[in-house]
Design a protein that fits this description.
This protein is of the alpha/beta class. Helices cover about 45% and strands about 20% of the residues. The strands form 2 sheets. It has a 5-stranded mixed β-sheet with strand order 6-5-4-7-8, with helices on both faces. It has a 3-stranded antiparallel β-sheet with strand order 1-2-3, with no helix packed on it. Helix 2 packs across helix 3 and helix 3 packs across helix 7.
């Protein structure tokens, strides 16, 4: 930790703490005082970081509305409005998505050499938008991107983004029969990439769409394209991070599932609390 004023590492911890119990520090070089949350996104927040992190995690993970979360925490005596949940989500989900995306960059495996690409739909301002998604043959997330159009430019942008995220170029890409994909794959990924068009081969991705489709169904659409893009990306990144199977149809025992979920959920909470 460094001083926010001069950047010095010469910080001395003070004996007293803030009203929320966070440690306080004083810089020996410039005399500026700070605490554990100074300079972060939650610096001026009224509530503890662990409470806010849990609200955002549940918002992304479970089928809960903004008011659902405020009512759930009201039972524990923690009072905040649904607009506070919206504000925390807008601040923290890009940080979480960016960190989880960074962690899986270059996480190469044989499965990532085969991509399954398709689109699903989100309603934004009363109109349908296209959520491009791709997974590998083991079911792990390759990339996601929201677009207002379903055309050549959108397909090329998505494939470029997916390649940059994974750090790999696939040997094979499976899509539906939309006419924009053959040329987009050739110009973006190269002519050596095998392109397959089969509705049956892409069935695993159609099933995977159910995760995001089921999550947003209770939300009744988005008011802005920016919020839809942010939520779609963050939900997919967290869902992939909490995914317990490393290959398709792998059996994971109940005890192992509980252990892995708790470990990864705590890691996601740590990212949110440190934002």
């Amino acid at each position: 930790m460094r001083c926010l004023g001069c950047g010095s590492a010469a910080l001395t911890e003070r004996p007293e703490r803030t009203a929320r119990g966070y440690r306080r520090f004083r810089c020996r070089d410039c005399g500026r005082q700070s605490n554990e949350r100074s300079g972060g996104l939650l610096n001026r927040a009224q509530y503890p970081s662990d409470v806010i992190a849990l609200v955002v995690l549940w918002r992304l993970r479970y089928r809960l509305g903004l008011r659902d979360l405020s009512e759930m925490f009201l039972q524990r005596g923690i009072v905040f409005s649904h607009e506070a949940v919206r504000d925390w989500e807008a601040k923290l989900t890009p940080v979480l998505a960016g960190e989880l995306r960074r962690r899986r960059h270059g996480r190469g495996s044989a499965g990532r050499r085969s991509w399954f690409v398709d689109e699903t739909y989100l309603k934004v301002r009363g109109r349908w938008a296209y959520l491009y998604r791709a997974i590998d043959r083991d079911g792990r997330l390759v990339g996601t991107m929201l677009s207002e159009r379903r055309d050549m430019a959108a397909a090329q942008a998505f494939l470029r983004s997916a390649r940059a995220t994974t750090g790999t170029t696939p040997d094979r890409v499976t899509t539906d029969g939309h006419g924009s994909y053959p040329r987009a794959i050739r110009t973006t990924l190269g002519r050596r990439v095998v392109h397959r068009t089969s509705a049956y081969e892409n069935n695993r991705l159609e099933q995977d769409h159910r995760g995001v489709e089921g999550r947003i169904r209770c939300m009744r659409g988005f008011k802005s394209f920016r919020s839809a893009e942010r939520f779609g990306r963050s939900h997919d990144e967290l869902r992939d991070f909490l995914r317990l199977r490393t290959r398709h149809n792998q059996h994971v025992s109940a005890s192992r599932r509980r252990l892995l979920h708790l470990r990864r959920a705590n890691a996601a909470l740590a990212i949110l609390e440190a934002a």
